[in-house]
Every structure is written in structure tokens, then in C-alpha cells.
Amino acid sequence: MNRKTREKFEARARIIKSMGHPTRLFIVDELSRGERCVCELTDMIGADVSTVSKHLTVLRHSGIVQDEKRGSQVFYSLTVPCVLNFFDCVESVLKARIKKQMGMI
Amino acid sequence: MNRKTREKFEARARIIKSMGHPTRLFIVDELSRGERCVCELTDMIGADVSTVSKHLTVLRHSGIVQDEKRGSQVFYSLTVPCVLNFFDCVESVLKARIKKQMGMI
DNA sequence: TGCCTATTTGGCTAAATTGCCAATTGATCT
DNA sequence: AGATCAATTGGCAATTTAGCCAAATAGGCA
Fold first, then answer.
1. A103 in any annotated domain
2. Domain range spanning residue A73?
3. Mean pLDDT over the full length of chain B
4. Is any atom of strand C within 7 angstroms of residue A77's beta carbon?
């Protein structure tokens, strides 16, 4: 794998990786239903605000979410709706895995 | 976030996370063109066989790939084709990011 | 101005990840 | 059986990640 190819996959892996954490995946799922402020997300998640804020920073840096400051609050939303396709596919993987475990394949 | 919800997102995040590494993403991309043995993948990637083997174990455990032993070789293939949708979406995220950087949004 | 709320940043520790080498296992071939 | 190739596993050091607390920053309001 040459340098250019490696860089290409590194850039793409970083985006996927940013969703590869339960809390961040929860955030993406929640934002798929509309924008949310940090305080709302923090309440739902039940972790320290600073922790949630850092997770949001990861998602923002990867380009999956964007933020908008309004008053004293910061609202986050998805930049691209297609990330929801991920969920459907993940379900397929889970289903296939269960089928295999049951010896149906 | 209650226990059940957390577990749900943990299971899904584990699948996504397994693709969140340049080498493993490369493997998924390569397998989208057909099954490959460990030795072929190792040649392409240019890392130690043991490293590649461990990456394949991660992907296998998450259910994204399956293995089949034939003779002295082990062939890997995708279990579910939809993982390719990930690539399209990742491209969209990258494009949106570039647009934003250029001040077009 | 001073207080309160919302959010981010710094710092620190614990845990997880990665990649290499060495050793092991398993199949093939002579 | 012995040699060889393919792949996995164990072990270890270096790096990265996660989450909490404390501190800093910023807006809104009395």
C-alpha cells in the first residue's frame, strides 16, 4: 500500500472511527431526529458535560456534525443525512451474525 | 441512557469501529471485489502477516467478514454487501467538509 | 457589575489499541 | 518423518483514547 493510498484510507477511516463509539453513535442517532443542544444531549447520555463536549468535538472534526451557537447554547446537527444508512447496514450485519450463530447459514 | 440502550449502541458501535482503521477499511474495500486469502491481503498491505491476521480477526468478530479454509489458505469475504454504502457516505462527508472549508456553505 | 447557566479546554489516570517479533499450529509435498 | 508455506496466537512496548474534575470562556439577566 503506497503513501497516497494509505492517506486515502486514513482519511476515510477517521470519519468512520468517529462514529465507532457508543456515545457518539447515540449522538448521531439522536441528531438524525433534529438538532440538539449540548445540554439536551448531556441529559440524555448521563455523562459529564465535558465528556459529551469532547465527543462532539470528535464528530465535528470528522465532518459528521456541525455546530451553531445561538445565545448561550450550542446546537449540533448532522451535516449529511446519509450517515443513517450506516444504521441499516449495521442491522444487517447483526442479523447475519445471529443467523450464522443459529446455524442457518 | 439506560443499560439496555447503552448495550444496543455498544453492539452497533463495535461493528462500525471495526471498520474505523485504515488497514481494515482497505481490507473491506478489497473484499468488495471478491474473496482474498490472507497472503494476498498481506502482500497488498505490506505489514506483518500477524498484524493483518489480527485485523481480520477484528473484522470477523464484528461479523463483517467471514473466513473459509481451503487447503493451507484461508479466504476472507464480506458477509453483507451493504458495507459498501459506507464508502459512498464517507465520500459525501468528505465533500461537504471541503465545501465548508472553501466557504461555499 | 456580578451572578448564573452553557460550553469548552487543560490535565491527569486508567484502559484500549496497534504493530512487531517469536513461537505455534496445520496443511502440503518429497 | 522432515521441510516448507500459510495463518494464528502470545507477548510486549509505544501510542491513543476515554472520562472525570477543575478551571476558563462567554452569554444573559438582575
1. no
2. 3-80
3. 94
4. no
Grid cell at residue A12: 476515510
**Which residue among A1, A22, A96 sits closest to B9, beta carbon to beta carbon?**
A22
- The complex's ipTM works out to 0.92
Domains: count for chain B: 1
Query: Cell numbers of A11, please?
Result: 482519511
Q: Residue range B3-18: average pLDDT? A: 96
Bridge partner list, A65:
A78
The minimum CA-CA distance between A8 and chain B, rounded to whole Å, is 8
Q: Are A76 and A31 in contact (CB under 8 A)?
A: yes
Interface touch A19/B20, C-beta < 8 Å:
yes
Per-residue pLDDT tens digits for B12-61: 999 999 999 999 999 999 999 999 999 999 999 999 999 999 999 999 99
Domain CATH code at residue A57:
1.10.10.10
Give the nucleotide with minimal C1' distance to the Cα of A47: D19
Grid cell digits, residue B47: 505489514
